[in-house]
Amino acid sequence: MNKLSPFKYSHDNKRYHTFNHYLKSNYGQKVFKIPVDAGFTCPNRDGTVDHTGCSFCSARGSGDMIIRGTLEKQIEEGFKMMRRKWPTGLAMLYFQAYTNTHDTLDNLKLLYDPYFEDDRFVSISIATRADCLDDEKIAYFKEKSKQKDLWLEIGLQSIHESTNEYIHRAHDTSIVFDVIKKCQDANIKVCIHIINGLPYETKEMMLETAQALAKVKVDAIKIHMFHVLKHTMEAYRYKHNPYPLLSMEEFADIVIQQLEILPPKTIIERLSGDGLEKDLIAPMWTLKKINLLNHIDKEMVRKDTYQGINYES
């Protein structure tokens, strides 16, 4: 435990379990992510389940900040950028854009097998949807996880079916929890994405989403703030029928209460997402991410609180 913080899963006085703490504890040094777009699409865009996509999702399938080019070119440029910050750091390869298990198992093997043999990476992280992880794919990733540290990142967004229908998620919430259980049984680490501030959700609803994940003891969570981005269904809705969005202070208050009810061992990979300035319609305060993170830290100190203080096992 850091003597300046009451929370033991911390290298840097944070009062929540950062991904940086997990990585440094496991690898003894800095580990950075190299995000890539491997050319996938999404079943909610290509007609497999629908064509519209989720109402908030950007045109590049959440991969807006990824360098363009071939997969190897993206990796090369990613290394150049990260090595300038951390010359001796280790690398995690992050398949970020779109749905990275939305293909046949044979094609997935052709893509992923070489990277599990690639000594440039100590870990592989794969972003996907629960409806693109059948039993055969989970069995495959179970074997891959024995070769190299593996994370599957899965979008939940909210446990509330009314919200997921509104944002056009195009699958039931229950399938996410089914896949979480199957991955836990297969010893595959899972990071679940949730979004705070989705249209018409109350604070209580957002806390209920965190509580549901606390009950199943998911390995890690990414918390995002809802963004209204240009060229999305939400942009059209917000323009024609504006709805209230969370202020920075409201968002921070909800995040802190979510942290308080999550297990201390649950890794918090992020506390807010990023939207490109050129595409962001609202809320504009999200562009100053460091202000948010500092505010959360200060509020947790002021309240003398920390992750898991209200967790009930």
Low-confidence sequence ranges: none
Helix content: 25-40%
Give the class from helix and strand content and strand pairing. alpha/beta
Report the sheet-strand fraction: 15-25%
How does the major sheet shape up?
7 strands, parallel
Strand tally: 9
Number of helices: 10
Indicate the radius of gyration in whole angstroms: 19 Å
Shape: globular
Order of helices and strands: HEHEHEHEHHEHEEHHEEH
Walk across the major sheet and give the strand order: 1-2-3-4-5-6-8
The span between the termini is 21 Å
Query: Would you tell me the overall average pLDDT?
Result: 94
Description:
Helix 9 packs across helix 10. This protein starts with 18 loop residues before the first helix and ends in an 11-residue tail after the last helix. The strands form 2 sheets. Strands 1-2-3-4-5-6-8 form a 7-stranded parallel beta sheet, sandwiched between helices. Strands 7-9 form a two-stranded antiparallel sheet. By secondary structure, it is α/β, with parallel strands linked by helices. The longest helix has 15 residues. Helix content is 37%, strand content 16%. Helix 7 links the parallel strand 5 and strand 6.
Key words describing this protein structure:
16% strand; 10 helices; two-stranded antiparallel sheet; 7-stranded parallel sheet; 313 residues; alpha/beta; 9 strands; globular; 37% helix
List the helices and strands and how they pair.
Layout: H1 19-27, E1 31-36, H2 71-85, E2 90-95, H3 105-116, E3 123-128, H4 135-144, E4 149-157, H5 161-166, H6 173-185, E5 189-196, H7 203-216, E6 220-225, E7 228-229, H8 233-240, H9 248-261, E8 267-270, E9 280-282, H10 289-302
